[in-house]
Amino acid sequence: MINKKEVLNHFLVVLFNQILNIEEKALKKGPFKVLTLSELHVIEAIGEENPLPMSAVASRLDVTVGTLTIAINSLVKKGYVNRERSIEDKRVVLISLTPLGVEANHHHARFHEEMIAYTVNILEEGEMDVLIKSLSKITTYFETKYDK
Amino acid sequence: MINKKEVLNHFLVVLFNQILNIEEKALKKGPFKVLTLSELHVIEAIGEENPLPMSAVASRLDVTVGTLTIAINSLVKKGYVNRERSIEDKRVVLISLTPLGVEANHHHARFHEEMIAYTVNILEEGEMDVLIKSLSKITTYFETKYDK
DNA sequence: ACCATATACTTTGATGTTCAAAGTAATCGG
DNA sequence: CCGATTACTTTGAACATCAAAGTATATGGT
What we know:
Chain A is mostly helical.
């Protein structure tokens, strides 16, 4: 009993570190190495839908707007992000991806897909379903218990 | 098929962010809030066994020794870590936890245990085993595929 | 219409993390 | 015993992050 818990804990911790590590290394070897990992996550949060206000992106990322401002400064300079004032409300700054930003986002999405595809390959039919169900239960639990 | 992959990806990403978040918040509310999350991970890596050389701890954490030096400076000042020169080889610096450091480590371990215990509670009998097996497969795969 | 207040964002100053490269001290091999 | 290696520390630089102060715009109440 206790042992299973330790084992589960161990694998979660290891998996955690591995994912961060792999993502970092993949980024620094790929065609978008000018980006940092957190800039890539900003790009992901902006997404390819409508332009979003700073505050919306910051909230998706769970960082302060001040922190986001700095990241956006850099991403605009690098050509990955458009920044424009809203016409209806001139206080609002709308953020969207440039074509280059969209490319970077696709590239990153492809990396995630690959990682997941490998994962799916090495699991058996039923295992996949149980894994999804378990992860779903866990995330839901954490959400209600700890989030916000 | 494709949908399952997306779902799995989604839950992994969410779980990932949740864990970091929860850990951070739990730390800043607890009795060891003077510590940063990465300092806590240094403490965890030092462990409660024998004193370890800097290089051993750095390798556990996968950071450079220079980075570790800075963290240890701070942890020594805060009273969580002992730093002593080895007698056999005076180049070597041996790191160990003070009683306070051990306390912090236990506190952190308890937090992990709780998180895992909740997870176990909400899973059914067989799900737990499949989850462990799946995570084990995934981490092993990542290890051989990506880890150097 | 006006002003106080609230909102959306940027700037600033501070802390923390991390690395690579240069520096220091001790050991080891021939 | 000297040159090379090893173990660590220091330094300089980039980045991430926050809280608080600052700027510009909008809104609600009178």
